[in-house]
Backbone:
């Protein structure tokens, strides 16, 4: 029979709740979790805070209800490790072995197969169901039982803190998930994911509503995706910004969260609190780049720069995405104007998934518009990727970009130290009226856990390059330089050749 949220609620309340530790009244959001599980959409993802019973409500209660009410027959439980998935299975086995009310009601006869990772359970009328477990990225292709493919896949904490920190690991994991796990289910199989967002480029976060990523968006406590075709997804937060709204008030009061947040902040890990309880793995108040440090170029100064009424030196840098491994990234060109006070004014960001020739054309467009003193480029990309084409284009066009090759450091955060220091000291201002600015600031404050970091890289190159560059001359300094030059000519004396 097809299960419903109400059926799961009654099943859990009457047969499972008495065995829970510190059982409380069923919270409203657990009812919503069961609604989501029973949704007709085949693919549903849920991000919920730690210690809010998401595994109990979904992985435990919904899986048991699905097989015992015969809604699903072949289940795969997946977690970041096989041992963690086996723990979920052990909890289910405990109910099937020792929950006398459940055994009697559903006429559980016994186990036809019982291992740490695989069980086949038989009911009194001979009906059987199977639950197997797998760890993330384990082999799962061709998984069948009695010519059936899995009709329910439940993923619980599918990603690990260590795995999400590495870009290559994230990409490899997504390939396994989309290329192996999802296709292994039956034609009418469903997938349900529950977890906590560990990184803004994590698989789970990619499935969630895009407009709910910002930490400033904390009301309501839940955000449903509205227009994502492949997945239906929801993100929960433990509380709103001022703790006046709580996701599970019967279990945790505001003081609990205030104390927990203060403790983690004192330990120097406020981002862990944001990750575990707000499903936003960055604490923007202590982020690598802080929103409060992003100062706007005053409109009068911006107009003066645009109309060339203010003496500035332009500098540009390129962060290339030309290798196969970087095909999902963007190539970014950052252009900044350094004024006489040493203030770096970021006036333009150009970003696109360009091929080599398109990138070169964009570089020449920047050269034509801004004529930068230097064009910072990564040494490896120039030498191995676009260098020969670029040199040929410069000869062909008769335009020569003043290239400044730089050797990258592997550690992106180290590379960004210079620009971070300038930002913190008020040495950088931004054209906040530009169309590119909103996405740029979001990427900066989410670094290093953002989905993309190409704009950060481009601006980091700027910071490294301009450390050794000279500021533009002020109007007074320029007039003084001209006066000194004229004076030198006047004092040169009579020419030996002309007599003048």
Residues:
């Amino acid at each position: 029979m097809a299960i419903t949220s109400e059926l799961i609620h009654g099943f859990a309340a009457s047969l499972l709740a008495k065995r829970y530790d510190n059982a409380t009244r069923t919270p409203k959001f657990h009812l919503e979790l069961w609604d989501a599980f029973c949704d007709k959409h085949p693919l549903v993802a849920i991000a919920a805070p730690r210690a809010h019973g998401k595994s109990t409500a979904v992985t435990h209660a919904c899986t048991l209800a699905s097989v015992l009410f015969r809604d699903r027959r072949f289940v795969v439980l997946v977690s970041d490790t096989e041992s963690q998935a086996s723990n979920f299975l052990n909890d289910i086995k405990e109910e099937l072995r020792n929950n006398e009310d459940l055994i009697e009601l559903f006429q559980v006869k016994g186990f036809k197969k019982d291992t740490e990772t695989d069980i086949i359970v038989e009911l009194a009328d001979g009906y059987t169901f199977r639950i197997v477990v797998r760890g993330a990225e384990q082999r799962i292709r061709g998984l069948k039982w009695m010519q059936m493919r899995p009709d329910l896949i439940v993923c619980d904490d599918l990603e690990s803190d260590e795995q999400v920190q590495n870009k290559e690991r994230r990409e490899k994991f997504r390939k396994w998930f989309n290329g192996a796990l999802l296709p292994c289910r039956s034609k009418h199989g469903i997938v349900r994911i529950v977890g906590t967002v560990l990184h803004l480029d994590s698989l789970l976060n990619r499935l969630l509503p895009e407009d709910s990523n910002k930490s400033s968006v904390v009301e309501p406590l839940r955000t449903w995706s509205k227009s994502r075709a492949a997945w239906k997804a929801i993100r929960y937060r433990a509380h709103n910004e001022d703790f006046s709204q709580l996701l599970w008030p019967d279990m945790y009061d505001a003081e609990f969260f205030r104390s927990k947040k203060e403790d983690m902040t004192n330990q120097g890990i406020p981002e862990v609190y944001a990750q575990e309880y707000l499903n936003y793995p960055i604490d923007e108040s202590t982020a690598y780049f802080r929103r409060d440090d992003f100062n706007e170029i005053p409109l009068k100064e911006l107009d003066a720069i645009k109309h060339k009424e203010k003496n500035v030196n332009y500098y540009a840098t390129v962060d290339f995405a030309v290798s196969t491994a970087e095909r999902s990234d963007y190539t970014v060109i950052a252009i900044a104007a350094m004024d006489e006070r040493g203030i770096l004014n970021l006036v333009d960001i150009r970003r696109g998934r360009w091929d080599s020739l398109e990138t070169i054309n964009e570089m020449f467009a920047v050269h034509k518009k801004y004529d930068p003193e230097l064009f910072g480029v990564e040494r490896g990309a120039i030498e191995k990727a676009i260098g020969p084409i670029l040199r040929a284009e410069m000869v062909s066009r008769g335009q020569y970009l003043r290239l400044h090759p730089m050797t990258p450091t592997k550690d992106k955060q180290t590379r960004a130290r210079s620009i971070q220091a300038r930002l913190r000291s008020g040495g950088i201002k931004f054209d906040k009226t530009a169309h590119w600015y909103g996405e740029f600031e979001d990427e900066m404050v989410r670094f290093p856990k953002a989905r993309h970091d190409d704009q950060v890289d481009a601006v980091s190159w700027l910071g490294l390059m301009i450390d050794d560059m000279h500021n533009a001359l002020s109007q007074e300094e320029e007039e003084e330089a001209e006066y000194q030059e004229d004076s030198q000519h006047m004092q040169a004396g009579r020419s030996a050749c002309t007599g003048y």
The CA atoms of residues 9 and 31 lie 7 Å apart. Residues 214-219, 488-492, 494-498 have pLDDT under 50 and may be disordered. The chain has two domains: 5-286, 291-476. Residues 379-397 form the longest helix (19 residues).
